[in-house]
Design brief:
Helix content: 25-40%
Oligomer: single chain
Strand order of the largest sheet: 5-4-16-15-14-6
Number of helices: 18
Bound molecules: ligand MGD, iron/sulfur cluster, molybdenum atom
CATH topology of the largest domain: Rossmann fold
Largest sheet: 6 strands, mixed
Structural class: alpha/beta
Number of strands: 30
CATH architecture of the largest domain: 3-Layer(aba) Sandwich
Number of domains: 3
Radius of gyration: 24 Å
Shape: globular
CATH class of the largest domain: Alpha Beta
């Protein structure tokens, strides 16, 4: 018998799946287009944790739950930390937070992902409403600005086949190789490129004045701010030519343009300003409130959904968490020992915790050090509903098969709520609650009811409905000649899940041999990795993919300037034999 479900992974696409006798296939209808990516094509082949264990010894699920309760009981409520990652994006994942919040444990806030960019968007527009996939499909020109669609959003590719493509990325990605215009700028200089583009657009009288007068009337002041940049010197420093600026403006003027941004541009302390400057360029072009135009980034997957769960409580940042302050740390759907910045600090801080609980699917650095390991059920074996941060579909995810291994988030929470006499509704109640936000549109598919298809159609969500431009230039072009760490997503892994990378990628002209082991270091720490040559990189870039063991020894756990977001690419690195 076949059933329809959806991929739960932290991915723009949120594909819909036909589960047919153990085989997963992409749904033909809608954006999934009949294909899945390698993660889901091989999903059932990855070995999962089968049996719970305590201090290395196998135990039953019942014993594991008793142990968990004992650990929670062993200290004051707020001395238990609840730390959830983003491995599974479905809505029922938060039911555990409901328990820990009611119980009075400490929760987390902050972002390891898109937080700085989101903050910049909110500063400018008053909210983060995303240009959905279906609108990108209606554009004539697509600018991939720090997004690598072949790796992280492959279901966008069939939708943009005949469009003009522009790519802005320090790596000559697969999409860059077929682009009409490719700009291989120096990392962490997008703010200046975006400002110069706005300035030249204004000089060429290319701004959409009708739109600006109505929705972004402070644009002349912003133009003045862009005049603080010295044109020739800045272009030289960022690795862009005047010709490229001219070409870009020629390709976008008067066209329906989608600027598709990824997290690559904002893994820096001033990541919010970078995103806001790109938004400002979009505003100067009048790309908001029009069909087929806009800026696509990571919207909120929860936009339009009201959570039925309790989520209040004291919160600490998930970027620089001081684990040592807690007696019990409950980790769900995350691998903080690999994916948080500054791994050496994380390892040291968490080593002081008496009770570390890991609730997940796979063995990894975190399960290795956990005192109590509780296997989760994968999405195939539990009921859920999911929404996306890149499109407006809502997908139902019924349990497609039964399994005796592991426990679902709902089952675990129901047990704990019962033990502590805290209120929890039935699983069916929550699933129906989430389903109530779905509406069937003319194409026969389900969408989140309250999301605008064309964001900001009635103006921005700021006080006077106007876009708020950056009014200060707080950053300078980084003139340090050190090597830039690029740590983006790999094709084979989803962060630290599935087939993880093991190499450092360098331009061959740097003189290191393919296959030799080198040391990469920063002010935070170092890692040894095998070299692989990649001449699609700029010579000043060191590429170590997310999920590579040890990559976060190099990264800083400082927050971005205006929000609690990680800045994985802020540190410069050194390489040596
Ligand atoms: N296969 C696969 N897919 C994934 C993931 C995965 O691990 N693997 N992870 C998922 C998650 S959690 C997320 S958040 C998304 C993110 O997916 P994307 O938004 O695509 O993010 P990244 O891969 O981090 O970076 C994208 C591009 O930004 C470029 N870049 C880096 N620094 C700069 C810079 O300073 N300026 C500019 N202009 N470009 C820069 C990189 O070279 C890279 O090509 O992907 C999701 N999808
Ligand atoms: N150097 C570097 N570091 C990065 C990044 C980078 O680009 N470079 N990217 C950052 C970003 S954007 C993100 S989003 C984070 C991601 O970091 P994490 O959120 O830690 O994600 P994963 O590495 O995918 O680890 C998730 C674990 O969750 C478990 N899991 C999967 N499904 C389920 C489930 O249904 N239930 C439960 N209970 N557990 C499950 C699996 O065991 C898996 O090992 O990493 C960040 N770290
Ligand atoms: S592309 Fe993304 S949503 Fe689609 S199957 Fe792969 S990981 Fe899942
Ligand atoms: Mo992410």
């Amino acid at each position: 018998m076949s059933s329809i479900t959806a991929c739960p992974l932290d991915c723009y696409d949120a594909c819909e799946i036909i589960f047919d006798n153990g085989v997963l296939k992409g749904l033909k209808d809608g954006h999934t287009n009949g294909f899945l990516c390698p993660h889901l094509n091989h999903y059932t082949k990855h070995a999962t944790i089968q049996v719970p264990r305590y201090k290395g010894n196998e135990i039953t699920i019942e014993e594991a739950l008793l142990k968990l309760k004992e650990m929670i009981d062993s200290s004051k409520n707020e001395d238990t930390l609840y730390y959830r990652g983003s491995a599974n994006f479905a809505l029922m994942q938060e039911v555990t937070e409901h328990f820990f919040s009611l119980y009075g444990a400490t929760l987390t806030d902050g972002s390891l992902c898109d937080g700085a960019g989101e903050e910049g968007i909110i500063q400018g527009r008053g909210s983060n409403k995303n240009m959905p996939l279906h609108e990108v499909a209606k554009s004539e020109v697509v600018i991939f600005w720090g997004r690598n669609p072949h790796t992280s959003s492959s279901h966008l590719l069939p939708l943009i086949k005949d469009k003009t493509i522009i790519v802005i990325d320090p790596i000559k990605t697969k999409i860059a190789k077929v682009a009409d215009l490719y700009i291989q700028l120096k990392p962490h200089t997008d703010l200046f490129l975006a400002m110069l583009l706005s300035r030249f657009l204004h000089i060429e009288n290319g701004c959409d004045e009708e739109f600006l007068d109505k929705y972004a009337s402070e644009y002349e002041e912003y133009y003045e701010l862009t005049q603080n940049l010295r044109i020739k010197a800045t272009l030289e420093q960022i690795g862009v030519t005047l010709g490229q600026v001219g070409d870009l403006l020629r390709l976008v003027r008067g066209k329906k343009v989608a600027i598709v941004c990824g997290v690559g541009i904002q893994k820096y302390s001033d990541g919010a300003d970078v995103m806001r400057a790109i938004d400002a360029f979009a505003a100067m072009l009048g790309l908001f409130a029009k069909e087929g135009c806009g800026v696509s980034y990571l919207g909120s997957s929860r936009d339009g959904i009201v959570s039925p769960f309790n989520k209040n409580g004291k919160k600490v940042s998930k970027v620089n968490t001081d684990f040592s302050l807690f007696k019990t740390v409950f980790i769900q759907g995350a691998n903080p020992l690999s994916q948080m910045p500054d791994s050496l600090r994380v390892r040291d801080s968490i080593s002081k915790v008496e009770n570390i609980v890991y609730f997940g699917l796979y063995e990894n650095e975190t399960s290795e050090i956990a005192d109590l390991v509780i296997p989760a059920k994968s999405f195939l074996y539990k009921d859920d509903v999911r929404t996306s941060y890149s499109h407006n579909r809502i997908s139902f995810m019924p349990k497609v098969a039964n399994i005796d291994i592991g426990i679902s988030e709902y089952e675990l929470s129901a047990y704990l709520c019962k033990e502590y006499s805290l209120p929890i509704q039935s699983e069916e109640f929550y699933i129906n609650h989430f389903k109530s936000f779905a509406i069937k549109r003319v194409d026969g598919l389900m969408y989140v009811d309250k999301r605008e298809e064309i964001p900001y159609i009635n103006g921005f969500d700021t006080k006077d409905k106007e876009f708020i431009f950056l009014d200060e230039l707080n950053s300078k072009v980084d003139e340090d000649t050190g090597m830039h760490l690029i740590t983006c997503k790999s094709q084979g892994s989803l962060n630290s899940q599935f087939n993880r990378e093991e190499s450092v990628y360098l331009h061959s002209s740097l003189g290191f041999e393919d296959g030799e082991v080198i040391t990469i270091s920063s002010i935070n720490g170092s890692v040894e990795l095998k070299v692989k040559h990649n001449d699609d990189l700029r010579v000043d870039c060191v590429l170590i993919y997310s999920g590579t063991k040890g990559v976060n020894n190099l990264t800083s756990s400082k927050h971005a300037l205006s929000t609690k977001s990680a800045i994985f690419q802020e540190n410069k690195v050194e390489i040596r034999r």
